[in-house]
Amino acid sequence: MAFVNDNYCNLKDSYLFSQIAQKVNAYVAEHPEKKVIRMGIGDVTLPLAPAVIDAMQKAVAEMGVKETFRGYGPEQGYDFLHEAIVKYYAGFGVTLASDEIFISDGAKSDCGNITDIFSNANTILIPDPVYPVYLDTNIMCGRKIVYMDGKPENNFLPMPDDSVKADIIYLCSPNNPTGAVYTKEQLEAWVAYALKNDAVILYDAAYEAFVDDPAIPRSIFVVEDARKCAIELCSLSKTAGFTGTRCGYTVVPHALVRKTESGKELELNKMWLRRQTTKFNGVPYIIQRGAEAVFSEQGQKECREMLAFYKENARIMAEGLRRKGIKFYGGTHSPYIWLQCPQGMSSWEFFDFLLEKLAVVGTPGAGFGAMGEGYFRLSAFGSRENTIEAMERIEKEL
Ligand SMILES: *Cc1c(COP(=O)(O)O)cnc(C)c1O
């Protein structure tokens, strides 16, 4: 008899995006003449940068020639990409060793896989509202989960509470879904809490490239002591439009050491290397060459132009909401705007209202956790034309 994992019974069905699709499809069928504008997407829409395409095409050609063909690469990624990322981090004042960086097929996979190196006896501290992957991957392991509330009183940036004991802490900044961004002082407080409790912070920096204030951390490792308590997950998905191309990286500092339940001290970097070399066979050479090009001078210039385009959308949205007197968070250093539903509407009431009256689609905040009720996420990943038109509809008809 093969038993299956009981913990899967504790997962909530993820209705959010299917329910949105269902409602939108029904609306489109009833109103074929209406132009529906989708502001709910959490996916990029601009194509890959020319520098990335050039690098990948060159790599494809190499794969077709006996002398330059490559088979299995190092599971943790090629040195050329490690070196490019070391330089990138140096650009915001963080010194990494090349073997502290692990290349992967994206932050979502690493986020799920990293649970392998931690005991299931850990208590997990998760923000609410939250990127659902943190929650579900830990439910699958049967771990105890405690929540920290994001709310207007803390600007959706939960801070450590000494009365709460947690072993693993998830932080995401700039945040999905709220667009909120931690300051360096706030991250210092989290690092102090983690060190005091021998906890580990899993820091999701997927949106770091949207930060354009040098005072705002793009990495938790700008806090020096974070090396002793944090793992950073990052991705080229939002930075460079790699959502379909797939490449990310995880930083596990050598200084990060914790005990097993039986009291043995282990270096987490070595554990993660062991885990990856056992269960993963690396990101395709062609993709890693494309990723390397993201960090080149030309690639950075092109990617910054893409980010500037999305950020200008966010600015247009924020300005419209401000004129309308709608309270919101995010929109700077982030492609997301997290707004308070007007007139006391619930998340889904506001969703229905926007769809039926304005033919605009967004994401109900309640889909990201109980604290998201009454809030709503708009994304800046759409076209300029649609962003402007959606805001005109909101300003005129809301
Ligand atoms: C988009 C996103 C990621 C990136 O995931 P990939 O698997 O690298 O595409 C990670 N974390 C958050 C919060 C995200 O929104």
TrEMBL record:
Top-level taxon in the UniProt lineage: Bacteria
GO molecular function ontology, one term from the record: pyridoxal phosphate binding
UniProt keyword list: Aminotransferase, Pyridoxal phosphate, Transferase
Annotated ranges, domain Aminotransferase class I/classII large: 34-394
CDD domains per the UniProt record, alphabetical: AAT_like
Reaction catalyzed: (2S,6S)-2,6-diaminopimelate + 2-oxoglutarate = (S)-2,3,4,5-tetrahydrodipicolinate + L-glutamate + H2O + H(+)
Cofactor(s), by name: pyridoxal 5'-phosphate
Biological or metabolic pathway of the protein: Amino-acid biosynthesis; L-lysine biosynthesis via DAP pathway; LL-2,6-diaminopimelate from (S)-tetrahydrodipicolinate (aminotransferase route): step 1/1
GO biological process: lysine biosynthetic process via diaminopimelate
UniProt EC number: 2.6.1.83
PANTHER family reported for this sequence: AMINOTRANSFERASE
HAMAP family, sorted: DapL_aminotrans_1
NCBIfam families: DAPAT_plant
Protein known as: LL-diaminopimelate aminotransferase
